[in-house]
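Weekly puzzle thread! Below is a chain. First person to post its structure in token form gets bragging rights.
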Amino acid sequence: MYAWPAMEGAYSRYWALVRDRLRQADVAAPDALSFYKDESSPWLRDDLVLGQTCGMPYRHHLHNRVQLVGTPDYGVPDCRPGYYRSVFVTRCTDSTADVSAFADSRFVCNHRGSQSGCAAPLVFAEDNGFTFSQLYESGNHRSSARMVAGGAADITCIDAVSWQFMVRHDGFASDLQIIAETAATPGLPYITALSNDRQLLFDAVKTGIGELRKDDRHALGLRSIVYIPPEDYLAVRDP
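Winning reply:
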């Protein structure tokens, strides 16, 4: 889910560590990672070894059709391990830090089925007594941020991990600022098909993260993997 081009090599080495552990346990792990433009494509495949999904689709239609392996911890400040939050982002030239002032402005989200980009900011708006009257979809967080930076939209909400990578890799991020944050929720979980051994996969990922080179761990932002129970995901409020 966090696949910046500059991180491709680090992801390949990360997967190789996990893959080799799985193969030692006679799991037919694929040689390389697959990246899907249609993010839902692999989630319900019977041969899914390991994938990453978003909290909103997990609680809406995946939780009883896949197994939750664990949640990677990206060390988001002021969040419990494995948790994250979203940040409201506007252009640096905008002087207000009041999100409600953008109620009638052009709000762009990555996808209406996204926890971080849509559900979290809409719940924030409800809790603060307003709604976003103009809601657009961009397809992904980077496109949302680029639209705001370029003036095609006025405000967006981006998960804190994606924002960290944008600041590191995308020049347009320097034209943007954070004006508020949402409440924290469980992060993007790793999942597997129902027929697989969840604990074996968890252990392989934990070992793989531990064996990562220091520069690769930094590039991917990974700290560890934790287990957040499915009921914690299902308890997250919908707007």
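Puzzle host: Confirmed. Bonus trivia for everyone else. The radius of gyration is 18 Å.
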